[in-house]
Amino acid sequence: xxxxxxxxxxxxxxxxxxxxxKARLEALGQDANGSQYLDDVRSVLLNPAMLNYxxxxxxxxxxxxxxxxxxxxxxxxxxxxKAEGGMFKxxxxxxxxxYFGSESNTSNTFRTAAxxxxxxxxxxxxxxxxxxxxxxxxxxxHSFEDEQAATEDKSDxxxxxxxxISGDTEAFLNFGISNKVxxxxxxxxxxxxxxDLGITHGMGDVDYMVRYQSIQAEESTTxxxxxxxxxxxxxxxxxxxxDKATAWASAWYKMDKAxxxxxxxxxxxxxxxxxxxxxxxxxxxxxxMGVEVMAKEWLTLRGSVTHNIMGTTxxxxxxxxxxxxxxxxxxxxxxxxxxxxxxxxxxxxxxxxNASATDTSAGQGNLRSDNLMSRVSLTYKF
Length: 382
What we know:
- The protein contains four helices and 17 strands.
- By secondary structure, the chain is mostly beta strands.
- The chain has a 16-stranded antiparallel barrel.
- It is globular and about 60 Å long.
């Protein structure tokens, strides 16, 4: 139970409202949908068993309403956030949750590469409890039809996440049940299989982690296929600096492989990262260092640096290239009023020929006063 004690101590130091958003995770160098070692309310989406420790809250993520065919909304990102929100409530010894708008960036990447519509109207149902070990289940459902004006487009997706926590060990399994698209144009897409397995074991203030991902999809009209297999091995350490500041350091060894079979150049470009490239292998070691400080009772500041100390990418011909420009800096803040928190990523000037005018998440290092925070969220714990 060491990890659960550490979680409780961390919640006592920092306002619980500050631990609950995509903005906080991204500012600390983590994935927006949860971290395997850094405690955050949003980790219930990664491992629903975490609902046994995070419950009774409402969370809202600012963003654009999903629109079919709007290419800027293919993926949720700091520069192009999507609207999401939900509520989680304990009832007796169980916890229930209902969440709207959470799409899979992975699924949308594959769908876009196949030239079909992205996910629409996603709804997530959660349930969690304690039966000697903490357990949780998340079920995602999506359905969309357009049969107007001689159009006949259909899309559906369903996936489930099973999570458990036993002592100092946490595990989750995310698997796809269905993922299909049929469009009037004749374009079809089918997700053949999808598995995401993660295990974390805590020993004191050190976490040891493993993650395995396997995805296979097919563009049905031409039978072009894409297969992805990723293996990640990681270690992370928590540093309690004082009663107001905490730091984290992690290192991952990542082995990612993608195979694109057939003539679908979009699969090759989007997944295998080069036109006419039928295979891609990446081996790299990213280091992440983050710090979070309660500057005032109403203000928490955080930031991180991510850098690959080694990394190569190899194409199907066996040609290798060292990964370049891997250093990333992120920062964020939380404004807190009791159990209510407003979180955001601190933006900076992004002027330049290669920059997006609407992207305040990266740039030339100048703090923007006209658009101070992006990836904004509101969380209330009750």
